[in-house]
Specification:
elongated, single chain, about 10% strand, alpha+beta
């Protein structure tokens, strides 16, 4: 059987049988490595902005979901006690029976299974009762990444209910 080299770089050896054997190439050429690096760079340039934009959206969605769950727990608290916890009692009243006014006369908690979560940026949710936006209920919000009021983009406030 006669093997014909397919590239210029193939080395051949003759044996006593008169057959020509091809020796495999070792490693990659510089051009092949450069082409792979260019392709990877282009992929990163197109994919990275898409992925980074999704992280911000995911945090917004997580904050809205957590606030919806906390709002539901606050509504359950109100059903049992006829009032929402005061601003001073805060969201901690969902986990442990609060002291002070208004009294939690029929507290049947805990209303959440774990401690009150922080927002996706690591800050406490802002709770007030009675609320400014909702004087007959409560206001629940997160101030976003910067933890300051009235930001834009990922720093913008997210208001529950």
């Amino acid at each position: 059987m006669l093997v014909i080299p397919t590239t210029f770089n193939d080395f051949t050896m003759r044996r006593s049988t008169g057959m020509i054997f091809s020796r495999p190439q070792r490693g990659f050429t510089l051009i092949e490595l450069v082409v792979v690096l260019i392709v990877l760079g282009l992929l990163a340039a197109f994919v990275a902005p898409q992925v980074l934009g999704r992280v911000s959206e995911a945090k917004d969605t997580a904050a809205k979901t957590q606030m919806a769950l906390l709002s539901s727990a606050l509504d359950n608290y109100r059903l049992d006690n006829s009032v929402y916890p005061s601003s001073a009692q805060g969201l901690a009243a969902l986990r442990a029976k609060p002291a002070g006014q208004p009294r939690a006369t029929n507290w049947r908690g805990p209303y959440i299974r774990k401690d009150v979560p922080l927002d996706p940026w690591g800050h406490a949710y802002v709770y007030s009762s009675p609320g400014v936006r909702n004087p007959n209920g409560f206001d629940l919000m997160t101030l976003g990444r910067d933890a300051k009021a009235d930001g834009t983009g990922e720093d913008s406030d997210i208001i529950g209910q």
